[in-house]
Amino acid sequence: MLDVGGLESDEPSPPLPPIPMSFKDKVSGDFGMAEDQMVISDDDVAIKQGAIPSIQFSDKVKSALCRPWRSAIIIKLMGRPLAYTFLRSRLLQRWALKGPMSLIDLENNYYIVKFLYEEDMRYVLTGGPWQIAGQYIMTQMEAWV
Predict the structure, then answer these.
(1) Which of 3, 34, 110, 115 is least surrounded, with the fewest CB atoms within 10 Å of its CB?
(2) Gap between the Cα atoms of 26 and 34, Å rounded
């Protein structure tokens, strides 16, 4: 075997690091919760034509679309931007959650934080004020609940 330095070696090469999860997989992840296989019928969707076409969904469809976001909040970092990995590791360290969380980067220092447990979400919403690297973090629960 030929190593990087050009010297032959009988030692096996170190194992490759695991393949990182794609952004799509991270965003669409459900933290191991069973995904509903919902069947949408014609009664669940109303398409209206007019000056501005629109699509209206039934309450059943709206509820199914909002379900994955029930234990999610929006946070805003007040101050200069921080690197995603730095912010995520500091949040995990500071919050000491009972379950995993997913951090989704939006624009202008806004992030969506999805929690596995509602208890973790309530702790973050009520346990502040939170501060990372000298910057305050505003927490807000959205209307998709």
Answers:
(1) 34
(2) 16
CB 103 within 8 A of CB 91: yes
Structure confidence at residue 1 (pLDDT): 44
- Here the tokens at position 139 are 């927490």
Q: What are phi and psi of 2, to 5 degrees?
A: -105, 120
Q: What are phi and psi of 31, to 5 degrees?
A: 55, 35
Q: Which fold has domain 72-145?
A: Alpha-Beta Plaits (3.30.70)
User: What does the alpha-carbon distance between residue 78 and residue 137 come to, in Å, rounded to a whole number?
Assistant: 6
Residue 93 CA to residue 71 CA, distance in Å, equals: 19
3-state secondary structure of 2: strand
> Above 70 in pLDDT, residue 16?
no
Tell me if the bond preceding 100 is cis, omega within 30° of 0. no
